[in-house]
Input
Amino acid sequence: MFKYLLIALVVIWLFYSPALRGKRAGGKPSAKADTPKAETMVQCAHCGVHLPEGEASTDEMGLRYCSASHRQAGPRNL
Ligand SMILES: [Zn+2]
Output
């Protein structure tokens, strides 16, 4: 019984701690993102090329693609 409460607390803590750290660190909201430090790299579900998350286009299933044409072509398992 107590175990589940502990797991729930850990999950809640994991969920909230990055958000709290982001609030503390995010003093300067930079409008111009000239040099993105470490943008998440995602893989195109069609051709497998890696690209920054911001440049990827996402379909309704949440899959990432490098271009609109690959998004239309759909996922392909290599
Ligand atoms: Zn692609």
Observations:
- DSSP finds two helices and four strands in the chain.
- The longest helix spans residues 2-25.
- The mean pLDDT is 83.
- Strands lie at 41-43, 50-52, 57-58, 64-65.
